[in-house]
Amino acid sequence: MCGRKAKKPLSDCGCCNVIILVSSNLPDGETDDEGLSQAEENTNFKMTKESNVIGEVCVRGKNVMAGYIDNPQANADAFLPNGYFRTGQLTLVGRLKEVINKGGVKIGPSEIEHAALSHELVLDAVCFRITRVMYGEEIGLAVKLHSDCEKGENTEKDLKQLMRSKLSGLKVPRKIIFVDAIQYNKIGKSLRARILQQFAEGPL
């Protein structure tokens, strides 16, 4: 066991289509864990709203690209009729293509990861999708503990118990894998697809 606690990072939001940074939360703790509060200058946000569907972040401003050259279909897919660019990111929860569909409920991996990172033993965590032909999608979680912490037989049990206090039971990972390292690409994004390929197989 160890008592080390990771410092809470700031969350930034952006993509190359809108010159990287779009929004950031505040360092003074006033922003809740579920959103980004400080929009960049000359940037307007819009959330798509459909019944029982997680909203998609759309953005318009001087920092947004004008469109794709000679590709009207790509522009039609990427922009709303009022000029807002569809980022593919979701309000509160993460990227659209990373969402886990568990029993018809759409679950964003970042929410699961944030809950896991609140445990004092956890240094890093990445949530991934487990697809089962008969039962649909389940939630998996790869966890790296602090280097001076040893995995005890109750570590997984304690972690799940803490996550149940922060999440609905439906969102608690079915499968938790303890790993020595979590891989990231050159710009600091976790290689979620590689983790999925590595750990999504096997018994739940």
UniProtKB/TrEMBL annotation:
The keyword Ligase applies. GO terms for molecular function: medium-chain fatty acid-CoA ligase activity. One of its GO terms (biological process) is fatty acid metabolic process. Residues 111-189 form the AMP-binding enzyme C-terminal domain. Keywords: Ligase. Belongs to the ATP-dependent AMP-binding enzyme family. This is AMP-binding enzyme C-terminal domain-containing protein.
